Amino acid sequence: MIETICNAPQPERERKRLFIKTYGCQMNVYDSERMRDLLAPLGYELVEAPEGVDLVIFNTCHIREKAAEKVYSELGRFKPLKEEKAKTGQPMTITVAGCVAQAEGTEIRRRAPFVDLVVGPQTYHKLPELIASVHRERGEALNTEFEVEKKFDVLAAPERQADSVAAFVTIQEGCDKFCTFCVVPYTRGAQWSRPVDQVVTEVRDLAARGVREVTLLGQNVNAYHGAAPTNDAGGGAWRLGRLVRHLAKVDAIERIRFTTSHPKDMDDDLIWTFADEPKLMPYFHLPVQSGSDRILKAMNRSHTASEYIGIIEKLRAVRPDIAISGDMIVGFPGETEEDFEATMELVRQVNYASCFSFKYSRRPGTPGAAMFGQIDERVKSERLGRLQALLADQQAAFNTSMVGKTLPVLFEREGRDPGQLSGRSPYLQAVHCDGPVGLIRQIAHVEILAATKNALSGRLIDKDSVAA
User: In angstroms, rounded to a whole number, what is the distance separating the alpha carbons of residues 38 and 30?
Assistant: First the structure.
């Protein structure tokens, strides 16, 4: 049993070195942290450099084009490191985890036979027993089953390390939307939500370890339908708005965020949570992908541009200061100049605080990859340039609008300069100012004096008190 391997008392032994390289999304960051936690009872300590380590994990992402090739290239760099380690009589165990492992597990084993383990995102909870099998020279080297419920049952046991004032908590995995450009349903599996009690236990544990801000994660986080807590007489599933209000009762948690949401799963209760719950930060990431209804239909996005705008208007009606973030894809198959201009017009209407934008990337196995009307790369690049120029102007204007205001800042760490602190505003902006290190993990007011594209700087107002 995995639990036995993880929790059994460990004899005195030489500590083992673990190197993890994480690609892609915030959920992968969360998964990497949990893999580290799972392996800590086996004696593995995380290190920053890969030379001479005992275990290497590549936690991969399959969203962007050529993602797998980047992994193979990186694996090639580690082959001589593994061979050098073997000369000392000690093995270097190389593991490929995550979405590339799920999508291309057999190919990884063929092209990189020196890889010891290939583990999908829903089976990394088996790492302790799989590593033990490798060291006994038996057992499967490829494990890409979809066992999301079993994964979270196991992950509920080990204690999480809290390295920062802010932490990610996965509450939902998988996707049932099947957007024609996306591999997530094929690599993460069907939509599934963690029970409320399990989420609350993890958040309380993080709070006890000094975490003050949690970001709830999911491929479609606002599709959350978690089993009600055991003390809920009504039973049934809870939606995200109710979960946020419940987690806000954890006193030490001062800020709550969530990402990534889908327009189809927005409901009025969640919208009103931004007005009713002060711990829910006024920052909302809602991908739209295109402003053209024709392209949205081809993408199988199940919403129109006007429906998306309607959601933004509702949010701003209940929380006028809310900052909106989004995702855009340029050059989807069949996109005309008229379609692209519709995207530009939507961006002008929304006026984003920040936005991620990409050229369409063909992902093998997705419907979009086989569509007619693939757009020339030069056209994609030219359109992306125009879009990003507009988005950069909007982000700069949003940051500049903070100058002269006083914002509550959650301080996370010391800054680069002596005496400087770095933290985050409610709108997720980086904020720098001079202040005492005793304010780290606390919220204090900062008068914003200057803004750049990526950060704010200011003057600490209340050195001796903590802002609400």
Answer: 12
